[in-house]
Amino acid sequence: MILEMDCGNSFIKWRVLDGALAVAGGVVDSDAGLIAAVLAVPALCVTRCRLVSVRSDEETSSLVASIGAAFGVEVLCAKPAESVAGVSNGYVDFTRLGLDRWLALIGGFELASGACLILDFGTAITADFVASDGRHLGGFICPGMPLMRDQLRTHTRRIRYDNVSAEQALLDRTPGRTTVEAVERGCLLMVRGFVLTQLELAREYWGQDYEVFLTGGDAILVRDMVPGARLVQDLVFVGLAVACPFA
């Protein structure tokens, strides 16, 4: 069984594969929480492991050591690269492209086998363009819903509401008649406007001959805008398997 991990700054997303089937998975907020969660799954036998991490080298090394001690396996770690599986890194300095972004666009190209637009809706929103020959043309980064919401809460004294109210406010798209409705729906309009711009640019590049991939926790908020898009929440893991194959 293969343990895969996507290690962000705050959380670790993990899953265990038995062949091509994901048999367990989840999200934890610490190295210890990860080990405990995996050990708690009945009849699980981890034999191989790979991960992508945007954490510091020291934090990543500590996690790798903990996994090795707990499961007795070596850990393959994704590394920056100029090219992988026919995809060329489009950054001027390839080491500066976030590894999670890099793997997501590798995963998108792997699934599309052609030109694709990858839109990732997390704390920040990223857009990446990959041409039919595998050239990464670059991308865009803007604040996601969590960042926009938190900035308004932090810098505007009278904006105070909880997450449940935020979720309820997004059930409708009409102009808000309360502060929470106005903020949440206004932020959503900004996100949707960003998506429209990316789609326009993709059409300028490739006409209709491209695929769109949506990933990240808030991808569902824009899915209706791109009916033909593919919602792939584990797109980073698809790229991780390509970048870190087992011999």
From TrEMBL:
<comment type="similarity">
    <text>Belongs to the type III pantothenate kinase family.</text>
</comment>
<keyword id="KW-0418">Kinase</keyword>
<keyword id="KW-0808">Transferase</keyword>
<comment type="subunit">
    <text>Homodimer.</text>
</comment>
<keyword id="KW-0173">Coenzyme A biosynthesis</keyword>
<feature type="binding site">
    <location>
        <position position="123"/>
    </location>
    <ligand>
        <name>ATP</name>
    </ligand>
</feature>
<dbReference type="InterPro" id="IPR043129">
    <property type="entry name" value="ATPase_NBD"/>
</dbReference>
<dbReference type="GO" id="GO:0015937">
    <property type="term" value="P:coenzyme A biosynthetic process"/>
</dbReference>
<dbReference type="InterPro" id="IPR004619">
    <property type="entry name" value="Type_III_PanK"/>
</dbReference>
<dbReference type="GO" id="GO:0046872">
    <property type="term" value="F:metal ion binding"/>
</dbReference>
<dbReference type="GO" id="GO:0005737">
    <property type="term" value="C:cytoplasm"/>
</dbReference>
<keyword id="KW-0547">Nucleotide-binding</keyword>
<keyword id="KW-0963">Cytoplasm</keyword>
<feature type="binding site">
    <location>
        <position position="179"/>
    </location>
    <ligand>
        <name>substrate</name>
    </ligand>
</feature>
<dbReference type="GO" id="GO:0005524">
    <property type="term" value="F:ATP binding"/>
</dbReference>
<feature type="active site" description="Proton acceptor">
    <location>
        <position position="100"/>
    </location>
</feature>
<comment type="pathway">
    <text>Cofactor biosynthesis; coenzyme A biosynthesis; CoA from (R)-pantothenate: step 1/5.</text>
</comment>
<keyword id="KW-0479">Metal-binding</keyword>
<comment type="function">
    <text>Catalyzes the phosphorylation of pantothenate (Pan), the first step in CoA biosynthesis.</text>
</comment>
<keyword id="KW-0630">Potassium</keyword>
<feature type="binding site">
    <location>
        <begin position="6"/>
        <end position="13"/>
    </location>
    <ligand>
        <name>ATP</name>
    </ligand>
</feature>
<feature type="binding site">
    <location>
        <position position="91"/>
    </location>
    <ligand>
        <name>substrate</name>
    </ligand>
</feature>
<keyword id="KW-0067">ATP-binding</keyword>
<feature type="binding site">
    <location>
        <position position="120"/>
    </location>
    <ligand>
        <name>K(+)</name>
    </ligand>
</feature>
<feature type="binding site">
    <location>
        <begin position="98"/>
        <end position="101"/>
    </location>
    <ligand>
        <name>substrate</name>
    </ligand>
</feature>
<dbReference type="Pfam" id="PF03309">
    <property type="entry name" value="Pan_kinase"/>
</dbReference>
<protein>
    <recommendedName>
        <fullName>Type III pantothenate kinase</fullName>
        <ecNumber>2.7.1.33</ecNumber>
    </recommendedName>
</protein>
<dbReference type="GO" id="GO:0004594">
    <property type="term" value="F:pantothenate kinase activity"/>
</dbReference>
